[in-house]
Amino acid sequence: MMLGTARRFGVSHALRATAPRSISARLATQLPKWQAPSTLSSLAATRSLHSSFPRLSAATAEATVEETEPSKSAMITEFSDLAAENLIHNKIIKNIIQPDRMNLKTMTEVQSLTLNEIVKGDDILAQAKTGTGKTLAFLVPTLQNILNDPSVDVSKVGRRSARTGPSEIRALIISPTRELAEQIAVEAKKVAFGTGLIVQTAVGGTQKRAGLAKIQQEGCHLLIGTPGRLKDILSDPWTGVSAPKLNTLILDEADRLLDQGFAPDVEEIQSLLPDPTKLDRQTLMFSATVPREVMQMVRQTLKPDFKHVNTVREDEVPTHHRVPQKLVYTRGLENSLPALLELAQNWQARRDNGEDLRPFKAIAYFNSTAETKISADAFNNMARNSQFRQSSMGNMRMLEINSRLTQALRTRSADNFRKAREGILFSSDVTARGMDFPDVTHVVQIGVPRDRETYIHRLGRTARAGKEGEGWLFMHRAEQDVYRKRLGRLPLTLDTALETADADLSQTFSNDTSVGKIVNQVTEGLAQCDGATKVKSYMGQLGTTTGNFDSKREAIQALNQMFTVGYNMQTPPELSPRLMQQLGLNRIDGVSMGDGTRQRRDGGFSRGGSRGGFSRGGDRGDRGGFSRGSDRSGFSRGGERGERSGFSRGGERGERSGFSRGGDRGGFSRGGDRGSFTRGGDRGDRGDRPSRPRRAFDESFGNDSFRF
Ligand SMILES: Nc1ncnc2c1ncn2[C@@H]1O[C@H](COP(=O)(O)OP(=O)(O)OP(=O)(O)O)[C@@H](O)[C@H]1O
């Protein structure tokens, strides 16, 4: 019997390995090379929190902090040594280390510090920086624990006569987003290859029946899913999928799953699992961020003696020191896209000049889905231009991902971006957590994100597994207050090198200057976007912008300017009286009240040739430039759509869905300054069964809140 088996399914504590108290010095020499030096010092602060609070305790005081006495596996840093220690099955180790398989050698800090504890069966809260291998940290010991379970018969696998049933689930992993659940499953299948263990997924947006049939036919030991779909299938007796033998529950991105958006679903899933007083259950929580607000929920969910493995020192910023983080002020909201293009072009130009840089591969994060879409559309339009194609930007893929795309399109975008050598992924917070896209060189956040955690997780899409990366935040000066409140202590430095960020875009630009070229390209790209997309983008940004800006008047002015100057439209959309009231815009200059009839009547309020869009750029005037874009967009179309899915509806429904946006703590806000409705931006798994008010709200404003 393997040591692990004895630990979890028998004499666990007698075999507990011990280690010298001063671990930092020893570990320092054995740390994986790719870990940042900062983690060396953080080891000294690795702690074990033994909460004295009983389960379901409402107490909020801090748990006692003790020096960690890492157990034997904490001393092991090479995966291959786990076999010698008889901790992990040979097949699993081979899958991890073989060059033709995962090809990994050295364990990361979080992997090495949690492995033995998990094999022993302890409850764990593990906090480690983004991209430091948390997925394998919970997968490897969890799969090992299933193998250790004497009641699991892997020899049944594949034999028709004695199939593993759908009720053989031993471990359940909950992920806040579909893409992340799928990604974890891919990793789990790699680790479990050849062991006989069966890994299945249950994620929203996919065909429920097909997924169920697969689980029923093939059986399942480890199920990975999103909250809504898991709740659906576990609560429906007709699915035949249950988990009466479940031993392990894992919450990946735990803080997200425990916040108000997801917590009810997660609680309900737990209520569908075996009673933990009758069947012992281990619960594992992993995340790069564990804000104080969720600690109470953590304590309520984990056993009182849970271990807190924290590789991020308390006085340390939980972002990687090797990621330069730059702050760029934009003159107007309309300057962000030119600044993004300039950033990409500058980088590619440096590569052309022989600098040893990886190809530009960026994720641009937006606070609203509609903005994601218009930006992706504009860049795709640009990328079709022959000049662009022949430039150093020519091979870039321009991809979009947000919850309003079908799951098939989302998956395709994610796959394409994974494979892309260079490109930009225009993303909502669907990809902000956990997604492991290789070789992302830049993360660009447009507008101050809704909270610090979101900033950290988005930034964490770059500089993963020891690689380099850069973080950029483009923000309007009027967001300064909210920036200070949410991100004030993060190490961003001001960067003024991007000329287009500060250019006055109401001017006409000649293509003779580099700024002019960039601005004209973006203008051309936007000109080809249809009017409905522009209105939706305006509406989608209303909530966050009025919430983020120091004053609502400034926010409306900035949005109107973006609409007229950036999108070359004539008059900003009308807002319904109710929406105005909800946003606190009643006495604000520049807001036009109405029901959208003007948009419908005018059949599109493009400013047409007045500013000239790309015809102004000169090289494409022959195509009719802007006017063509405008005609095509048929603002009548925009008007209709606006009416159907835009603001008027938003105005009606917003109030029902926590759109007390104007206030600081509207709706699902978690904290003082976080009240924006984009709060649930990476909310997963609602797509298949949305609650009506939330969905209506979301559709109205083009946000990813509460969707997936
Ligand atoms: N021991 C290791 N050595 C080298 N690379 C590793 C190791 N473990 C994991 N990785 C790789 O590091 C990358 C990041 O891992 P993972 O996605 O698990 O990070 P994470 O800590 O979960 O990040 P996030 O907080 O963003 O979810 C992956 O590409 C993974 O394959």
UniProtKB/TrEMBL annotation:
Pfam families: DEAD (PF00270), Helicase_C (PF00271). Residues 339-516 form the Helicase C-terminal domain. Its EC number is 3.6.4.13. It is an enzyme of class 3 (hydrolase). Keywords: ATP-binding, Helicase, Hydrolase, Nucleotide-binding, RNA-binding. Residues 115-308 form the Helicase ATP-binding domain. The Q motif is unique to and characteristic of the DEAD box family of RNA helicases and controls ATP binding and hydrolysis. This is ATP-dependent RNA helicase.
